[in-house]
Specification:
heterodimer; A: alpha/beta; twelve-stranded mixed beta sheet; ten-stranded mixed beta sheet; B: alpha/beta; Rossmann fold; six-stranded mixed beta sheet; four-stranded antiparallel beta sheet; 26% strand; globular
Chain lengths: 476, 252
């Protein structure tokens, strides 16, 4: 296969780019394989071939491609007209070898990128024991010994497919089939990387399982596919944070996250994405929650140009519970279209959604939510609260709450508020000695606090730092 | 010109084009507590806001000098860091921000970046202030004024005063809406702050507060000006006779 070389004509111009200012830099790239631009049958075949996948996966990919072609893009939601697939690389492989097991083996370039993003020492250390996704594939993966002893599987998804084909095949694409939506179909066709997590029955993991994601190639698509399985009575927290350097042409990120919460399990999934402001971030996240199990989502959207993300929870077993806590920050030129979807399909299920959004300048944040209560889901309870904060007169926010109730005994509450950054609050805080920008940042942090307090400390600190960066120059 | 005083000199200010302050002259020397009394609408609250730098007011004439230096060109936060404090009549709520966090930030804003206050030092300071106000320690973890009663808000203003240790404080009707017990506690706090290094201007409607915070000097404000300055007996007189006799005197 002569295509699978570094000699691709486009490879040249992607290298050697220099950083211009903070958060807008890139390091020279060393790729062994980069697919041609655009999405085609040939590209898909190459990906599958290169990954040495079983035949069924190639068939699955090609079928998904057909479905995507048939479906076409959604006709609702944010404007995606400048997202051009013909300009995007759907697969790039950063290094020849499979993922390594120690931090020291992670290429210096990758570590340099972490450093320049200002990821604190402590957080870099946290990366030990996690998969860090650089480019389209895991380059680093390690699993703490005690987890292994407990039978926990924590791998990049490609390795998961190779090493645990039975578990993989049993659950893969059962929660989000390619037919579900256009971007799920695209992801199914070209997926690469992501995390594969399997926690056996009764196993509780106290330390969160963490993955750090980065993309670092111009116009490179990133299509991670995460599959998380919590067996009965298991309990764990999976965390993913994304940070990306800024490039001049549009990037595309479209992940699929599938989570299975078996009976009595407690699973949490937290993510804060801070893609650079040229990334289209279109993600399908969904969990199926069985009897007496609970699923908690924490979803933070700070970066990207356009985000479409609605973590979904299907409460299919009696007594299942779901929680979605969501934060969105839409700055100049950004559209955060985020929300939650909760389906109550069994009796005595309950759900809580808390959404906090902030808009600034030409930024726009939308809450799009669906609460559906099926007939027979007796005693189901759902409570939705969405609060929007506007930092100036130009900023925009809107709410699209859909509620469908087909069960008389259900209790559903919905509350929405919109507020503006308040001059009186600013003056008050200033009168205590805080400069105006700091006062505004404090108000914003306070607004987000009900959600932020659920984050592990390191992430909360990082969130605060990102908000302070966002708030600089936004008042006065 | 004394370096150890808060001086308001011929201060004129408008809100929405309407003149509210029409030439206020007033001096609060360090180490003294002065009371500012006057009927509704006389401009007392406006005066406090103008001194603190509320951008909704426009100063048209005059000056405010803190230890001999004009502060009119300073931002509200710069004035605060220079040593000024305003206890608000209606303190706002800031949801999600705990009192402890907020006060630590406010204290650190007064210090150099590489000289943040130590955790123990801070908590000792905060605990002492909480004790002075007979308050429960759990208060410091509550969000700033969120769900506070009127009295709790006023107490919080004094708590902040004790922690931030300004050179000059203006208390804007801190007594309004307080029952006698709360009034005593709040006064206890203000009296605890009294020192040769601290000056205060206590704005009030009623003489009642001045039974607990004994003022060195009493000023009376009417229609945007200070029309009378006297000893604490002046407050008693006003309490007995109301403001009308003063109005008549001014008109005459």
């Amino acid at each position: 296969m002569s295509d699978l070389t570094t000699d691709h004509p486009d490879a040249e111009k992607l290298t050697g780019m220099q950083h211009e200012k903070q958060y807008e830099f890139s390091l020279p790239e060393k790729y062994f394989f980069k697919s041609e631009k655009g999405l085609s049958k040939r590209v898909i075949e190459q990906i599958s071939h290169y990954k040495n996948e079983p035949e069924w996966m190639l068939k699955f990919r090609l079928k998904a491609f057909e479905i995507a072609e048939k479906k076409g893009r959604p006709k609702w939601g944010p404007d995606l007209s400048s997202l051009n697939f013909d300009d995007i690389y759907f697969y790039i492989r950063p290094q020849d070898k499979k993922g390594t097991n120690s931090w020291d083996d992670v290429p210096e370039e990758v570590r340099e990128t972490y450093r320049r993003l200002g990821i604190p020492e402590a957080e870099q250390r946290m990366l030990a024991g996690v998969g860090a996704q650089y480019e389209s594939e895991m380059v680093y993966h390690s699993l703490k010994e005690e987890w292994e002893k407990q039978g926990v599987i924590f791998l990049d998804t490609d390795t998961g497919l190779q090493e645990h084909p039975e578990i993989f095949k049993e659950y893969f694409a059962t929660v989000v089939p390619p037919e579900d939506n256009y971007f799920a179909a695209v992801n199914s066709a070209v997926w690469s990387g992501g995390s594969f997590v399997y926690v056996p029955a009764g196993v509780e993991i106290e330390v969160p399982l963490q993955a750090y994601f980065l993309i670092n190639a111009q116009s490179m698509g990133q299509f991670e596919r995460t599959l998380i399985i919590g067996e009965p009575g298991s309990k764990f927290h999976y965390i993913e944070g994304c940070t990306a350097p800024t490039y001049n042409s549009d990037s595309f990120h479209s992940g699929v996250i599938e989570i299975i919460c078996q009976e009595g399990s407690q699973v949490r999934y937290s993510t804060i994405q801070n893609w650079s402001h040229n990334v289209y971030n279109l993600v399908t996240q969904r969990a199926v929650v069985h009897k007496d199990a609970s699923m908690g989502w924490l979803d933070g959207n700070l970066g990207s140009k356009v985000t479409m993300k609605y973590p979904s929870t299907y409460l299919v077993g009696e007594g299942a519970t779901g929680e979605v806590l969501s934060i969105a920050f839409a700055s100049n030129g950004q559209h955060q279209d985020a929300g939650a979807k909760v389906i109550h399909a069994a009796p005595n299920t309950s759900s809580t959604v808390v959404s906090k959004s902030i808009s600034k300048g030409t930024g726009r944040s939308s809450y799009r939510g669906l609460v559906q209560i099926h007939e027979g889901a007796t005693g189901a309870r759902s409570n939705v609260e969405c609060d929007a904060l506007l930092l100036d007169d130009q900023a925009k926010t809107d709410t699209y709450p859909y509620i469908e109730i087909n069960e008389k005994t259900a209790h559903v509450g919905h509350e929405a508020t919109v507020s503006k950054l308040n001059d009186e609050q600013i003056f008050y805080l200033q009168s205590r000695g805080l400069p105006e920008a700091e006062a505004a940042a404090l108000i914003v942090r306070g607004f987000l606090e009900p959600v932020a307090k659920e984050l592990p400390l390191e992430y909360a600190v990082e969130l605060n730092r990102l908000i302070e960066l966002e708030m600089e120059g936004s008042v006065g | 010109m004394s370096k150890n005083q808060l001086e308001i000199r011929n201060l004129h200010a408008n809100v929405d084009g309407e003149a509210i302050l029409k030439g206020v002259d007033l001096i609060v020397p360090k180490g003294e507590v002065h009371a500012l009394m006057g009927p509704n609408g006389s401009g007392k609250s406006t005066l406090s806001k103008v001194i603190a730098g509320d951008p909704s007011y426009e100063v048209t004439e005059g000056d405010v000098l803190l230890d001999g230096v004009s502060i009119l060109d300073l931002e509200p936060d710069e004035r605060a860091r220079a040593g000024l404090y305003l206890a608000f009549q209606y303190p706002v709520e800031v949801p999600g921000v705990s009192i402890a966090n907020f006060l630590r930030l406010a204290l650190n804003a007064r210090r150099e970046e590489d000289d943040e206050i130590g955790v123990m030092e801070f908590y000792n300071k905060l605990q002492n202030a909480v004790k002075t106000l007979n308050w429960d320690e759990s208060i410091i973890e509550r969000n700033l004024h969120e769900g506070f009663s009127g009295g709790e808000k006023k107490r919080s203003e004094i708590l902040q005063l004790l922690v931030l240790e300004p050179k000059y404080a203006i208390l804007d009707e801190t007594d309004s809406g307080l029952d006698v017990d709360a009034l005593k506690v709040v006064s206890q706090g203000v009296n605890a702050a009294r020192s040769p290094e601290f000056g205060a201007l206590v704005i009030t409607h009623y003489q009642r507060l001045l039974n607990y915070i004994i003022p060195d000097v009493v000023h009376v404000m009417l229609d945007g000006k200070v029309i009378r300055t006297g000893s604490k007996e002046l407050a008693m007189e006003l309490d007995e006779k109301g403001y009308d006799w003063l109005k008549e005197q001014v008109a005459a």
